[in-house]
Write a structure and sequence with these properties.
The protein is an alpha+beta fold.
Length: 611
């Protein structure tokens, strides 16, 4: 009798995936007894409600092609508003559905138009009006519209052109805040609109360049909350007077305030502060002026902050580097934390996961570049993947990135370094603005300096350094492999990254053109500079094996951006693997697609970076 040899189990990416994913949209029912959120239990993101008292869930939608992007609860509590698009095309439409379930009702029906509900609270306090925006009049202009549910009529309250978003209704329902996004995502004006046909009134100086993220109104209607960096390096929390536009500061940390929520009774104010990527929750009683004692959050990042009408409960979505995104309820009365979900990796053991170390490395101009360094178990030497976030106006955070992808690589002996190169959010407006009209400039130098930093670490194999990124991060990957080819990269993975800045700028959605011109450049006036910075111009220098992942319906980085770089590399015989997902847009929203893409990317990287 032969004894069977025991073959060790080798974990795959699917073992590290979470059992459920949530989008960063949460809403508490008006009576405080339920929450609404979006998860992908059926493989696609759909709308769910959960009773807080019993934990019972009700699945309200079951789309297989559409993706629910956002949810809000009608003040009467009987039904919900949600936004959904089709196969990632981002042409979101508005729907209503009964809280008890049933067939969704379309409130808009223009498949080629992008609609969006108010960035704050879309419903007027009496529930009669819905504030939203869309480019249905002119593809290049985003109007602000108000749907009168009682008369089934639409009013246009702003038609001034550009990108303008409704914010929040005043307590009496007579006024609506508007945010006009100008040349960049961090250049805003604030207006007040009414429903009487009058022109909206501006509350901020036209010549100022500052962020103004709109928050809820104060209960007495004298003003509203804003998160702004006017006159500051970081975004603080203030109230804005509804008549004069004057600011009264409530919190001015040397970090960014990211989210704010106020209870319907106007008493309990809570807000998030991003401290080196980690979320801190703060609170204040606006009646007494006293700070509210808020329990410390787990060491990670949180989004989707919302508070119940009576101010007792706070709900948010939170993740750490070793724990997937879950929904967390905070009872402010008792200072207790209660997880409303308990999503874990499918089979991987979190006890084996590795925490990152927050490090800073020197750039050539003297700046210190922050980043999260994940070291695999063992003495080394180990290969390392540099993971570059998208945006570029985003920030690498200490969360369960790419649904466990980092931990999967670590389990296979591959380290991960996730830097926040110049252009990243979270480190002040000067730092984030450095990348504007300089894609492939100082940011690329920061990545070269990252390689030098890694090669100086004793546990890292200098010949096994790869690079991966999505969207802008994909552009950075292609730039590294082409313009920094002398660094002898071991491999690269590009997820829907642009390869040609001229064709990217020309293909941008009409409402984005001013943004693209300010952040990337004008495809006509700046064509020479943009082509000099485009990876496709330097494609003949790429030698490293490359994997490219692309959504066929991507409206932000069209498929052509990946096609042209793949064609150039294949014509030279460079190893390139190309995967196109016909039912995806900008990102991988379907669970099966995400699992396939990251499993294949992981195998590709482990082959080239592993032992």
């Amino acid at each position: 009798m032969h004894r069977l040899s025991r073959i060790p189990y080798v974990p795959g990416y699917r073992d590290f995936q979470s059992g459920l994913r949530f989008l960063p949209t949460l809403a508490i029912a008006p009576d405080g007894d339920a929450i609404a959120y979006v998860d992908d239990a059926n493989g696609q993101f759909n709308l769910v409600t959960q009773a807080l008292s019993t934990g019972d869930t009700r699945r309200l939608t079951a789309g297989t092609d559409s993706t629910v992007r956002r949810v809000a609860w009608h003040p009467g509590g009987e039904w919900l508003l949600y936004l959904a698009d089709d196969s990632g095309d981002e042409n979101t439409q508005l729907y209503r559905i009964d809280a008890a379930g049933g067939i969704p009702v379309r409130l808009t029906d223009a498949p080629d138009v992008q609609y969006s509900a108010a960035l704050g609270e879309p419903f007027s306090p009496d529930g009669r009006f819905i504030a939203y925006c869309g480019n249905d009049r002119d593809p290049a202009d985003q109007d602000v519209l108000v749907l009168d549910l009682s008369a089934d009529e639409v009013r246009r309250v702003y038609t001034g052109g550009g990108r303008v978003y409704p914010g929040h209704w005043s307590p009496d329902g007579s006024r609506l805040t508007l945010a006009q996004w100008r040349t960049t995502n961090s250049d805003h004006l604030v207006h007040l609109a009414t429903l009487d046909g009058a022109e909206p009134r501006s509350l901020t100086p036209y010549d100022d360049v500052a962020t103004y993220w709109l928050g809820p109104w104060l209960r007495d209607g004298s003003g509203f909350l804003v998160m702004s960096n006017v006159g500051r390096e970081f975004t603080g929390l203030a109230t804005m007077d509804a008549e004069s536009g004057a600011l009264t500061w409530l919190d001015t940390p040397d970090w960014d305030v990211e989210e704010v929520a106020l209870s319907a009774d106007g008493r309990v104010l809570v807000w998030n502060v991003n401290v080196d990527g980690f979320t801190q929750l703060r609170g204040r009683d606006l009646v007494t002026g006293a700070d509210i004692r808020v329990p410390e959050l787990p060491a990670g990042a949180a989004t989707g902050l919302t508070v119940s009408g009576d101010g007792r409960f706070v709900v948010l979505r939170l993740s750490t580097a070793t724990r997937p995104w879950n929904i967390l309820l905070i009872d402010l009365t008792y200072g207790e934390l209660r997880w409303l979900s308990n999503v874990r990796p499918v089979t991987a053991d979190p006890a084996t996961f590795r925490e990152p170390t927050l490090v800073r490395y020197p750039a050539q101009d003297g700046r210190q570049i922050p980043g999260y360094l994940y070291r695999p178990e063992g003495p080394g030497p180990a290969g390392v993947l540099i993971s570059i976030h998208g945006g570029p106006a985003w920030q690498e955070l200490p969360v369960y990135m790419h649904d466990g992808f980092y931990q999967y690589l670590l389990a296979h002996g591959v380290g991960v370094f996730a830097p926040n190169v110049r252009g990243s959010l979270g480190y002040g407006r000067t730092y984030s603005d450095l990348v504007n009209r300089d894609w492939g400039g100082g940011d690329l130098t920061d990545l070269a300096d990252a390689v030098a930093y890694l090669r100086a670490q004793e546990w890292i194999d200098p010949d096994r350094i790869g690079v991966m990124g999505a969207s802008y991060g994909g552009f950075a990957v292609l730039s590294c492999l082409s313009r920094l080819s002398e660094l002898n990269w071991a491999a690269g993975v590009d997820l829907y990254g642009p390869s040609n800045l001229v064709t990217l700028a020309k293909a941008s959605p009409p409402t984005w053109r001013s943004l693209v011109a300010a952040v990337i450049g004008d495809p006509e006036a700046d064509a020479d500079r943009l082509m000099a910075r485009s990876p496709v111009t330097h494609a003949d220098r790429i030698r490293a094996p490359l994997m490219v992942i692309q959504g066929a319906n991507d409206p932000r980085v069209p498929r052509q951006e990946s096609d042209q770089i793949v064609e150039r590399l294949r014509s030279r015989g460079v190893e390139v693997r190309y995967e196109v997902f016909p039912d995806e847009g900008h990102g991988l929203l379907r669970r099966d697609n995400q699992a396939r893409a990251f499993a294949n990317a992981g195998e590709f990287l482990i082959k080239h970076l592993g032992d």
